[in-house]
Each structure stands twice: as structure tokens, then as C-alpha cells.
Amino acid sequence: MSAFLEIRNLSARLRDTGERVLRSVSLEVPVGAVQGLVGESGAGKSMIGRAVLGVLPKAVEIVEGEILLEGRDLLKAKPSERRRLIGTRTALIPQDPLTALNPSRRIGPQITDRLVDILGWEKARATARAAEILAEVDIPQPERVMRLYPHELSGGMRQRILIASAFAAEPKLIVADEPTTALDVTVQKQILHLISQMQARHGTALLFVTHDLGVVAKICDSLSVLYAGKVVEETTVQKFFAAPQHPYSAALLAATPRHTDAGASLEPVPRAVLDAVSAEIAADDASWRRHG
Amino acid sequence: MQFARVACLRLLTTLITLIGVAVIVFIVVRVVPGNPIAMMLPPGATDADIERLKALYGLDKSIPQQFLIWFANVLHGDFGTSITTRQPVLGLVLGRLPATLELSIMALVMAVLLGGTLAVLGTRLRRTRAEAGIDIANGIGMSVPDFLWGLLLIVLFGVLWPVFQISGRVTPRLELPFTSQFYLFESILRLRFDLTRDLIGHMFMPALALALPLAAIIAQLLKQSLKETVNLDYAVLARTKGYPETSVILAEALPNAVLPTLTLIGVQFTFLIGGTVIVERLFSYEGLGNMAIDAVINRDLPLIQGIVILFALLFTLVNLAVDMTYAFLNPRLRHA
Predict the structure, then answer these.
(1) CA A199 to chain centre
(2) Which residues share a beta bridge with A5?
(3) Domain that holds residue B138
(4) Contact B237 A94 (CB under 8 A)
(5) Which domains does chain A have, with CATH numbers?
(6) Is residue B4 included in any domain, yes or no?
(7) Does B289 reside within a domain?
(8) In angstroms, what separates the C-alpha of B329 from chain A's closest C-alpha?
């Protein structure tokens, strides 16, 4: 078994309207690999990350499929078992560092809580580990920072802390949900570098959700391109940037600004391509309805 | 520095509030129909008798003059003498205050526990039928006033299933070894739990009657802010760490959701203290509120003034306490 995380035919829909938001999504994240998940906003890429971590919004329900973590299906596991698997094997690097730390709790306990409560470590060991991992993400004076409240730290610092917190328990898989989107451009680069460095050092598999193909090129091994909840292309980064197979992927790549051709106008994804993908999805929906 | 300035300002506003209350009460009790002299004299008293008594209590002077005399005495710690009991007002009022404080605080604790539990439970069961049940219970709790709850409780736990005492503060034949009027508090300190039980047996129903409307308000507001907070990013992050929903609500959401509720509790607690007046009467509980009603019936002007000013002081102190707790609970305010 090479894949740590395997998603098979995952479909989800909105409870109220029944609209499909994930369409038979399949993807694999091998042990220690970095898998990109790319798409426009609303394509369902964050939804997949949240489904893996068991924190889908209440408005969304999974209708079919499997999410296998080390071969065990999270969707069939008992809630307590699922929480234990997710809490001990995975972690999340959230999108917005300004809202992902609890404003009324000090930094230290927000890192050590999982180690003590879920993994059952001694408190002293967890505190030492938190200081160690904070130093690893270049937080100066970790012991002092652990006594601070989130509002006393900058956004970049908070994202470093969240990254440290994600790696603290040595999870096998980390879901990074657009971890640089909410940051300043200058900080984005450092944070991306940090995530990539930490991933390589700890050998953690990474499911990297982003809308930024530039980021994918820098950090990912392979990627899945999503459109309207459907994986339209799944390939390695090398192949993708050399020759994207699906017309939507190609258009998306063409729409990405490059600093090599400064002054060139930005190309939106052509209407015809969007129409074609939409038709593909409509056909897909029709066949799904016939079977379901 | 900052703190000293704020403290001085608060003290000043408290004083101004109290003086304002004193002026208003002083005037109101003298303007409303009925006067204490008429209550004291036997039928057939002469005009000369009336004038003599008026002079004795200083009621023959103009209202502003009366106020200045009274106010000057108050500044010396003399709140006057009760007309009906002929005892110093300050002593009477302070003697009853502990009973009312114990009752109000017990009611507050009950309201917070009950309301808090309902809010957490309602959040835990959100989007289920049980949540609708809790909402309905809240609606009932809020719309029935405290004295009506009192009557209902008397019927339930005093008559149909008599587990609690329906009148008084303590069983009269009991020997009380207390040196203060804080019976409940002292009984616990002296480890006389037999007396604690008796006191709680008397306090339970009036306290619950006062607590129920407040509990419902707390439950509703706290549930609303909890439901917003449990969807915030840090709560979602805590779920991905493997915490069950109840832990997420209690450890992550509650400390942040409690702030707006706290302000409300402060305001509502003053209403609760106001409610003691009628609820104490209902349960013949020997507190300040019961004394207030007697004072009003007897037109005991100095006593009414003393009681109202003490209530006003209580209200301002409660508000001050809320502000301080607020600063304590919110780290962002604490550091500012």
C-alpha cells in the first residue's frame, strides 16, 4: 500500500438544494508526497480538504465514496474512531492565521493541547516539544511566545505558529488549505518556503489546496485540477507544466501571469473552454442521476 | 495611571448616581398621597397633635429644607430613624441586606448554571428537534415573570410535593449560633451543614423563581453566540485535532462567546435584585425587599429612602463588577 490517503469516488451535495459540490472525486496522496489541489474559488478544493479532516460544513453531505486513511475508511468508522485517526495521523494548516488561533487562549496550550489530550503525552514533554518545534519554524524566544496571546503577534508569526502546531505531533498527512492566501506577498514566499522545508525534513505527506499554479510549481510533486467539484486532470507537476492534457487545465495555465513576459495582457479562461467543461459536467450529472 | 483615572471617574459617576437617586426618592415619597403622620395618630387627633408630630419628624419644613437636613446627616453616616420601629435606619437596612444578598447571589448562581447548561446543550444539539425543545423552554422561562414562577413553585414543591419550605428564611425553632446576618455563608464556614440544609430548603424556591427568567435569557443569548463561535476557524481547527464536539464548545467557543452574555447578566442581575422585593414578600423571606414593602405600606419615609439608596448602591456595584470581569476575561482589553 503506497498511498497514505486515498479518496475514491467521493461525491457530496448541498443538503438543502441537492446540488452536487463534489463529483466522484478520486485522488491519492502517497506517503511523504506533496499533492496539489488546484481550481478556481468554489471548485470544491477546500471542501475535499475539509472532508478528509471530518469538518465539512453542516450544509454539505457526502452521498457516496470512500476516504481511506492508511487503508481505513473514515466515512465508515465510528465518530470516536474517526476523531482519533484524524487527530493522531493528520493536521491542518489553515488559511487565515488571524482567525485560526483562539483569541482567549495563550499560544502554548494551543500547540500542546493535542499532544496532551489526544496523544496522551506528559505535559512537560508536550511543552518541551512545542518550544522545540517553534524554534524549528524560526520563532525567536519560543518560551516567551508560548505565554503570549494571539493578538500580540503578527499575521506571519501566527502562520508560523500554526505550521509548527501542525507538525508538532509528527502527523503523516497535513492538509494545507490555501496557507498563504491571507498573507502579504512578501510573507507568502517565506511561509511557502517554510512549509516546503518542514515537509521535506519531516517526510510528511501534504495535500496542498491552492488556486495559485505558481505555488504548485514550487512545492508539489503531482496535482489534481478541479472544476465545479470534478477532477478534470490528475498528473505530475512536470507533465502538467510541460503539456496539460485537459483543455481547461491548459487554459488555466495560460491564464497564469508570468514575470518573464512583463507587459503582456492577462488571458482569462476562454468562454469556449468553460462551455466545454460545463457540458462535460452536465453529461456527468445526467449519468449520475440515471444510476442514482 | 490609566487605571487610577478610570477608577476615580467610576467613583465620581457612582456618587452622582446615588445623589440623583436620593433626590428623586426624597421628592417622590413626599409627593405621593398618604403621609406617615396620618398612619401614626389615632382617629380624633387634633390639628395641634398633627403639627406637633410633624415638627418632631421635621416634616413641617419645605421639601428642599428637609432634604438638606437629611443629606447633611447622611454625610455623617446618619440615615435617620425609622418612624415605625424607632430604630436607626442604617442598622435596620444593613441587618436585612445579607439575607437579600444571599438570596440574589444564590438565584444568580442558579440562573448561570441552568442557563449555561441549556445554552451548551442547545449548541451541542443544534439542528435537531431537541434544540427546538430547548428554545420553547427558553421562551416559556422568559415570558413568565418571577412572582408567577414563585406561585407555581409553591404549588409544585410546597403543596403537591412538599420538599421545600414555603416561608421564612430559617425554621424558627432552630438555635442559630451565628454572629452575622450572612446565615448561609456562616453556616458553611462553621461546618453546620444541618443549618445549611435548612437555609437552602427555605431559599430554594424563591431563588429559583428569581433565577428562571434570567436563566432563560442567558440560555438564549449564550446559545446564539455559541452557535456563531463554533463555526469559527479556531473551533474547526480544534475539531481536526480530534476533540469531540462538546470539548470544542466548552474549551474553544465558550470563553469567547461568554462576553456579550456577561454584560447582559450584569444588567439582568439588577432586575433580579429588584425582583426580590415581590418574591421575598411572596415567600415571607426576611430580606430587604420584604422590609421595603412594609416601609411603603407604613409610609416610613426615612426607611424607604435608606432602602432605595442601598438598592441603588447595589446596582452600581454590580455594574462595576461586570466591567471588571469583562476586562479580566478579555485579554485584548486587559493589555490595552
Answers:
(1) 13
(2) A29, A69
(3) 98-298
(4) yes
(5) 3-97+172-291 (3.40.50.300)
(6) no
(7) yes
(8) 8
The answer as to whether B40 is a domain residue is: no
Cβ contact A103–B256 (<8 Å): yes
- CB atoms under 10 Å from CB of B137, counted, come to 15
**Residue of B131, B234, B240 to mutate for A, most A C-beta atoms under 10 A:** B240
Residues 144-163 of A with CB under 8 A from B: 149, 151-152, 162
Task: Please give the tally of structural domains in chain B.
Answer: 1
- Measured in degrees and rounded to the nearest 5, phi and psi for residue A288 equal -65, -40
- HSE value, Cβ hemisphere, 13 Å, CA-based, for A47: 28
CA A291/CA A288 separation, integer angstroms: 5
The phi, psi pair for A179, rounded to 5°, reads -70, -10
A138 vs chain B: nearest CA distance in angstroms? 22
Q: Look up cell 451548551; give the residue.
A: B120
A61 — contact with chain B (CB < 8 Å)?
A: no
The DSSP symbol for A150 reads G
Across the interface, whether the CB atoms of B332 and A149 are under 8 A apart is answered yes
Residue-wise pLDDT tens digits, B256-267: 999 889 888 888
What are the angstrom distances between the C-alpha of B22 and each of B121, B132, B298? Answer: 44, 46, 19
The complex's ipTM works out to: 0.92
Q: What confidence tens digit (pLDDT) does each residue in A57-94 have?
A: 989 999 999 999 999 999 999 999 999 999 999 999 99
Pair type for strands A72-73 and A90-93: unpaired
Helix (H, G, I), strand (E, B) or coil at A73: strand
**Smallest Cα distance from A55 to chain B, Å:** 7
**Cβ contact B234–A100 (<8 Å):** yes
